[in-house]
Amino acid sequence: MSNAKKVWLITGASSGFGKALAEAVIANGDIAVITARRLDRLQAIARDHADRVLPLAVDITDAAARDKAVADTLARFGRIDVLANVAGRGVAGACEEFSLAQLREQMELNFFAAAEMTRAVLPQMRKQGSGNILTVSSIAGLVAMNAAGPYCAAKFAIEGWTESLAIEAKPLGIHVTLVEPGAFRTEFAGDVNMRPVQSIPAYRPVVEPFETYLETSAGKQMGDPAKAARRMLEVVASEAPPVRLMLGRDAYSIWDATIAKRQEDLDSWRARGEDTAFDDAEVVEIKL
C-alpha cells in the first residue's frame, strides 16, 4: 500500500463489507469517513482514531443526508480520494410476490442511492483530477437468480450505470470499479433480507430452496470480508485498476457457467436474429 494517506468516504460501514473495509482502511493508516444508520456501531469502529476517522449517521436514501455527508467530509479533510458505495440490502421471494413499494425500495437503496452518492462526489473528484469510486454490486448484478428478482434488477441497473460512468470518468483521472462478490460471511444471508408482502404457493418450489440456502449458509460462507477489503485497497493502490473486481471462487464459477449457457442460448437463434435488416441496408459495425 502507498504511504500517502487517502481520504475515504464509505457507506454501509456498520457491518459486513463496509465494516471490513473501514477497518482495513484504518489499519492502512488512511483517513475514513464512515457512514451508516447505526451511529453506535460506527463509533465503536472509530474509537482510538478520532484524528482520522469521522463516523456519521446517514440514511443513504436521503438526498439531504448524502449531501451533508459529502460536505462534512470536505469540511473536515478537504478532499475525497475514494468513495466506497457499500450500503445495500438483499431479498428472498418470487418476483410476483413483492409489492410495487418494495420494488421501488430495492431500486432506491441498491441503485439510486449509490448513483446519487456518486454524483454528489464527482464534482470534487473532477476538481481534483483524481479519485477512485468503488461500488459494491454482486454476482447477482451479472447473473439473474430465482427468488432474488428485485435485488438482481437493482444490481443489474447499477452495473450498467457504473460501467458507463467508468468510460466517461477515466479521461478525467477518475477510476471506477464494480465489486462483484459471491457468498461472504456478512449479514446478507441473515434475516435482514427483504421478504415479500405475500406468499404465492405456486412459487414455493423455486423460493424455498433459496430460503433454505440463506438459513443454512449464514456464518458458513467461504468468503472472508477482510480479504475482500484487502483486494479493494489493492484496487485503489493500482495504477491500472479494473472496471470489475469479482470476488470468490463461487462467483467466478457461476459467471463461467452463465456465460456458456447465455452464449448457447444466443447462438440458437442467431441466424434468425441477424436476418432482420432491410435487403439493401449497408452493414455498419458499431465500435465501442
Could you please describe the fold and organization of this structure?
The protein is an alpha/beta fold. The chain has helices at residues 16-27, 39-46, 63-77, 100-128, 149-169, 204-217, 225-237, 249-268, 270-274; strands spanning 7-10, 31-36, 53-57, 82-85, 131-136, 174-181, 244-247. The protein has a 7-stranded parallel β-sheet, with helices on both faces. Helix 1 (16-27) crosses helix 7. The longest helix has 29 residues, at 100-128. The model has no long low-confidence stretch (mean pLDDT 94).
List keywords for this structure.
single chain, 13% strand, 288 residues, seven-stranded parallel beta sheet, globular
Q: Brief description of this entry?
A:
Helix content is 48%, strand content 13%. It has nine helices and seven strands.
Q: Can you lay out the helices and strands and say which pair or pack?
A:
Elements: E1 7-10, H1 16-27, E2 31-36, H2 39-46, E3 53-57, H3 63-77, E4 82-85, H4 100-128, E5 131-136, H5 149-169, E6 174-181, H6 204-217, H7 225-237, E7 244-247, H8 249-268, H9 270-274
Parallel strand pairs: 1-2, 1-4, 2-3, 4-5, 5-6, 6-7
Helix pairs in contact: 1-7, 3-4, 4-5
Give the N-terminus to C-terminus distance in angstroms: 33 Å
Helix count, DSSP H or I runs of 4 or more residues: 9
Mean pLDDT value: 94
Q: Major sheet, described briefly? A: 7 strands, parallel
Q: Structural class, from secondary structure content?
A: alpha/beta
Helix-residue proportion: 40-55%
Radius of gyration: 20 Å
Annotation, overall tally of beta strands? 7
General shape: globular
